[in-house]
Write a structure and sequence with these properties.
2 copies of one chain form a homodimer. By secondary structure, chain A is mostly helical. The first copy, chain A, has 7 helices and 2 strands. In chain A, strand 1 and strand 2 form a beta hairpin. In chain A, helix 2 packs across helix 6, helix 4 packs across helix 5 and helix 6 packs across helix 7. The longest helix of chain A has 25 residues. Chain A binds a DNA duplex (30 and 30 nucleotides) through helix 5.
Chain lengths: 158, 158
DNA sequence: ACTATTTAGTCAGAATATCTGACTTTCTGA
DNA sequence: TCAGAAAGTCAGATATTCTGACTAAATAGT
């Protein structure tokens, strides 16, 4: 047991940052998706998650903004958003300052989904904290936060 | 400048581990994909990356194995793998121990793609190292490695 | 050895997701 | 005020993924 664990450790040695980020990221998204489905939010697909990950919960978001953040065309995002509107997760209100634009906002149902997703991620986070230790988890989050700030600076300088 | 940076820091405070992993992970994959396209590997799509991420470079992998690791059906993986065979990235050799199975292996071209992908990730890693510091980068990788070991234990205990 | 069951992979067809190109409406800057 | 630029839509094509039904080979239980 200890032996095989150490063997697995060895196998991690050469791993690149891409793979090291991918495994935990997919773990989170798949667990969240399964929880949502099992909790009655069963009319969404995996693809819709990107919308909930990027929408501004308070003020809503524009279609174009969601598309940019999700690295997809506005037409593709339009397709996802329409599904979510039809199923009652989103509604759009005209933007008071721009006659072309609409702000996509979470409905009550949409907000409930997001709430559950957040709780699920928190639960995963707590599980990991127990397993790798509270200190390491805090360090992990702190470094990732720093990295995310840098990476978003790269993007946002238009 | 310092002010706005601190403001952005504040915005990270409430971020969950899901978002903190997603931003750097997508940064890596999009940069790798763009580098591959720009370097002449322009007959692959984003979806194909998952195959290269999961294939065993030395001994090849089975279709079913790739499908499981990628969280998709073997039919879907079969579709991706066929594309890659047609474009000369993969070839399959019959499994000597199992008449039903084939081992999917990288061709020379496939190996060249993987090599470039690895170099690109290493370059990103070095860039990040310069920006957040070598110590933090090492710590980040070390904690992620530990986490990945745990998460893969969860999966592999069938 | 013989049958059951499981496993690896394929074929066919449907549903979902994403893209490109062309368009309308509204906004913005010189 | 007019020429882009930006927000969003429509239409059609392609790509991705799924489900169901299938064949052939391996394996387990008897």
């Amino acid at each position: 047991m200890v032996h095989s664990k150490e063997k697995r450790w060895k196998q991690q040695e050469g791993r690149l940052i891409g793979a090291l980020l991918r495994v935990p990221y997919y773990t989170v998204t798949y667990q969240v998706y399964e929880t949502l489905i099992a909790s009655g939010f069963d009319d969404i697909t995996h693809a819709h998650l990107i919308v909930f990950q990027n929408i501004n919960e308070k003020h809503g978001s524009r279609l174009t903004e969601l598309a940019r953040k999700s690295n997809m065309t506005k037409q593709s995002m339009g397709y996802l958003v329409n599904n979510l509107k039809e199923n009652g997760y989103l509604e759009d209100i005209p933007d008071p300052h721009d006659g072309r634009a609409r702000r996509l906002c979470l409905t009550e149902r949409g907000a409930a989904l997001v709430q559950l997703a957040i709780e699920t991620v928190r639960a995963i986070e707590n599980d990991w904290k127990e397993r790798i230790g509270s200190d390491q988890m805090d360090t992990l989050k702190q470094i990732l936060k720093e990295l995310v700030v840098l990476l978003e600076e790269d993007t946002q300088e238009t």
